[in-house]
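Hey, I was hoping to borrow your eyes for a little while. I'm sending you its amino acid sequence along with the backbone structure tokens. Take your time with it, there's no hurry, and the full record follows here.
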Amino acid sequence: TNIPTDITLNIAPINLYPNPSKSGIVFINTNLEIHNIAVYNINGILLYQTQYTGHIDLSHLNNGMYIIKITTEKETYTFKQIITNY
């Protein structure tokens, strides 16, 4: 049996979970070097900025949808995150 060795996996380099987050804690899984994390409301207003620690604590924010921008050395990734604290 031949096992293919040229399979390319199309996997996002950064994974945020869970979404929606019921606790307000959002975990970040990546091997990339993260320089900055910024959280915006849906109107594009910056609410929160932090350094990478493996997770983001958004429990102080109201329920709703937020935009999370993660900046690495080479590019910026944008995610939609829903918070449902209660």
